[in-house]
Amino acid sequence: MLRPLVCLLCLSGAAGAETPMTTAEFESWSTGKTLDYFVDGALWGSEMHLANRATVDADAGGECRSGRCYPQGDAICFVYEFSPGPYCWRFLKDGDQVTAEFVGEAFADHIAVTLSDAPVACTPEVGV
């Protein structure tokens, strides 16, 4: 999901005092949760963050891809089976809102992210 097609934006329109999340903060925020990504109000994809930095990712209605994340400097990097990578992001927090900034390139697409407790909806269910 965190492939270099996208940049995550918070749900609010105005940028405030964004502070980078540490690896520990990111893991506390995401582990055991599913991050749902929306483009123009429509679900684009989801990524479930499991223990030991494992992930399960899928585009909306797509196949599951197992992956993992790891820290690299001030970024969190992601690798997925059958997909080139790594894809590295800096996660920024502004109050309850979180944004992600792709390391190395700028992106025009903005994707809103929300947290949920639901598993990733994809086929087949890999690692779920």
Structure, briefly:
This protein has one helix at 23-30; strands at 7-9, 19-20, 34-39, 42-49, 54-59, 65-72, 75-80, 83-94, 97-102, 110-116. The chain is mostly beta strands. Strands 1, 2, 3, 4, 5, 6, 7, 8, 9 and 10 form a 10-stranded mixed beta sheet that branches.
Outline the structure in words.
This protein is mainly β and 128 residues long. The protein is 6% helix and 50% strand. It has one helix at residues 23-30; strands spanning 7-9, 19-20, 34-39, 42-49, 54-59, 65-72, 75-80, 83-94, 97-102, 110-116. Strands 1, 2, 3, 4, 5, 6, 7, 8, 9 and 10 form a ten-stranded mixed β-sheet that branches. The chain is globular.
Helix share bin: under 10%
Structural class: mainly beta
Q: Nearest-angstrom radius of gyration?
A: 13 Å
Query: What's the multimeric state?
Result: single chain
Beta-strand content bin: over 45%
Element string (H = helix, E = strand): EEHEEEEEEEE
**Ends apart, CA distance between termini:** 16 Å
| Number of strand segments | 10
- Helix run count: 1
**Which stretches are low in confidence, meaning pLDDT under 50 for 5 or more residues running?**
2-15
What general form does the structure show?
Answer: globular
Q: What average pLDDT do the residues reach?
A: 77
Largest beta-sheet characterization: 10 strands, mixed
Layout of helices and strands, plus pairs?
Layout lengths: L6 E3 L9 E2 L2 H8 L3 E6 L2 E8 L4 E6 L5 E8 L2 E6 L2 E12 L2 E6 L7 E7 L12
Parallel strand pairs: 1-10
Antiparallel strand pairs: 2-8, 3-4, 3-10, 4-5, 5-6, 6-7, 7-8, 8-9
